[in-house]
Amino acid sequence: MAFNLEEKYVAAAEEALQARLPDSYRSALQTENGGEVFAGNDWWELHPISDSSNRKRLSRSSNDIVRETASMREWTNWPAGALAIAQNGTGDALVLLKKASSFEPQVYVWKHEDGDLTEVAGDFSELERA
């Protein structure tokens, strides 16, 4: 079950990532921090934004976007400046790409086999939520 999220935790994630998140993504995760989306003919488990407001929320957000992105950077062919926002359980990821000091609104599928990036949505708000 996903929880709502206070603005201060979004701001902390942006500070750690050194870039602003797209408005639609910020808004969606503030309403429901985590959950699933449908993109590219697959369901994806969203990585939450770390929420330390209480032990339960901290535990449920331990696989946050900052931590998951740091882990994905170790993969071969991981795109420079990519932010891991979701995974499908097969090694692939949904990503946002960084441009200057913000992440672009487009959502891409990153394939771990070859590093291929395919745009699946022009904006996070276009994705179907479970």
From TrEMBL:
<dbReference type="InterPro" id="IPR018958">
    <property type="entry name" value="Knr4/Smi1-like_dom"/>
</dbReference>
<dbReference type="Pfam" id="PF09346">
    <property type="entry name" value="SMI1_KNR4"/>
</dbReference>
<dbReference type="InterPro" id="IPR037883">
    <property type="entry name" value="Knr4/Smi1-like_sf"/>
</dbReference>
<feature type="domain" description="Knr4/Smi1-like">
    <location>
        <begin position="7"/>
        <end position="127"/>
    </location>
</feature>
<protein>
    <submittedName>
        <fullName>SMI1/KNR4 family protein</fullName>
    </submittedName>
</protein>
